[in-house]
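Colleagues,

For the teaching module next term, I've prepared a clean inverse folding example: a structure given as tokens, and then the sequence designed for it. I'd like students to try predicting residues themselves before seeing the answer, so please don't circulate the second half yet.
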């Protein structure tokens, strides 16, 4: 299951357990936020995009931390006039971890799994042992 959410004038495609950087949001570290879904696609491939259904849908995320992004350099130049301008910018960002995607009509909301995923080498090793 995944959802397309809107925050900070941008749209992000998220799944449960994803960690994303968005423009700075108010909230302390560990705080829980509700984000506005624009589209939700469940595991069967059913798309929910009508405004009536999405009013009830919720995407819950927790704040991991606040930080500043990479520096972006801006340089303007005008030919033959020796006019140059150099400027830098660093965007303030909030790192979010998507906890649940709750779509009404489902028996339970999608949650992050607590079991660690195995790598192919770990699976081969277990098959050889057992």
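(Answer key — instructors only)
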């Amino acid at each position: 299951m995944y959802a397309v959410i809107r925050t900070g004038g941008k749209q992000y495609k998220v799944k449960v357990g994803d960690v994303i950087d968005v423009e700075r949001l108010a909230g302390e570290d560990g705080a829980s936020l509700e984000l506005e879904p624009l589209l939700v696609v469940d595991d069967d491939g059913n798309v929910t995009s009508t405004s009536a259904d999405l009013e009830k849908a919720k995407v819950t995320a927790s704040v991991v931390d606040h930080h500043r992004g990479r520096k972006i350099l801006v340089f303007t130049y005008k030919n033959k006039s020796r006019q140059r301008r150099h400027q830098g910018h660093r965007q303030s960002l909030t790192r979010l971890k998507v906890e649940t995607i709750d779509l009404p009509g489902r028996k339970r909301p999608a949650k992050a799994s607590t079991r660690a995923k195995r790598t192919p080498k770990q699976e081969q090793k277990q098959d050889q042992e057992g």
